[in-house]
Write a structure and sequence with these properties.
With 209 residues, the chain is α/β, with parallel strands linked by helices. 41% of the residues lie in helices and 22% in strands. The protein contains 8 helices and 5 strands, in the order αβββαβααβαααα. The protein has helices at residues 2-9, 79-93, 112-119, 121-128, 145-158, 165-181, 192-198, 200-208; strands at residues 18-31, 50-63, 68-74, 100-104, 131-135. A 5-stranded mixed sheet has the order 3-2-1-4-5, with helices on both faces. β2 (50-63) and β3 (68-74) form a beta hairpin. α5 packs across α6. The longest helix has 17 residues, at 165-181. It starts with a helix and ends with a helix.
């Protein structure tokens, strides 16, 4: 935990950006009947029935100190999807950066081996050489600032029925562009000192081992 918090406390360095990575499944829901249009003093009304159209995965890549993010829509969240997201991060989002820090959850798909299985060792090494992974501890996914950005995305964009992948991708891209244009940043305030105070009982247990 302290390693993540120490990383967050470092000053912004555009030559070595820090990117937080997380993922979220979302349902595709289609209206059974067309909603009633907006009227003066009357909100949009929709039937309680809907049709399920499956799920899609959302990968969130956010650089909180720069106010920059990208959302990728995929059908799954497999090792291959993770590997493709990391190559997109390296080659498309930050092609001119020598190395970057990536904060991510400690899942079995978030590994160097996922890159090897997907691209082969030579390409995996090329991508991995540009990435320095920092995994959150078990039960510590709340330390990942990408969770905050996903929560904002859910509130501002996903709290409605999106019927298909195309609509989901279009809406998340519109949201992403608006957030990037405003350079909306995440201001993290929980420090190492805060952690030692809040979790002092756990620190004591660790020290006595």
């Amino acid at each position: 935990m302290e390693a993540i918090l120490t990383l967050y406390a470092q000053p912004y360095d555009p030559q070595r950006p820090m990117v937080c990575f997380d993922e979220k499944m979302t349902q595709l829901l289609r209206h059974v009947r067309e909603p009633l249009p907006l009227k003066p003093q009357v909100g949009r009304r929709e039937d309680y029935e809907y049709k399920r159209e499956g799920t899609r995965n959302l990968f969130m890549l956010v650089e909180p100190k720069a106010g920059r993010r990208a959302v990728l829509v995929t059908r799954q969240r497999s090792k291959r999807d993770f590997a493709q997201a990391m190559r997109y991060l390296v080659d498309v989002l930050y092609p001119h950066v020598f190395i970057m820090d990536v904060v991510l959850d400690n899942l079995n798909t978030h590994t160097y081996h996922a890159l090897v299985e997907t691209f082969g060792k030579t390409e995996a090494d090329r991508i991995a050489d540009r990435l320095c992974f920092h995994s959150t501890p078990p039960h510590g996914s709340w330390l990942n600032m990408a969770e905050i950005e996903l929560s904002i995305l859910s509130r501002q964009c996903l709290k409605r029925r999106l019927p298909d992948e195309w609509t989901l991708a279009l809406e998340t891209l519109t949201w992403e562009n608006a957030r990037n244009q405003s350079q909306a940043k995440i201001h993290w305030r929980f420090s190492v000192d805060d952690a030692r105070r809040v979790f002092r009982d756990h620190y004591s247990s660790f020290s006595s081992c």
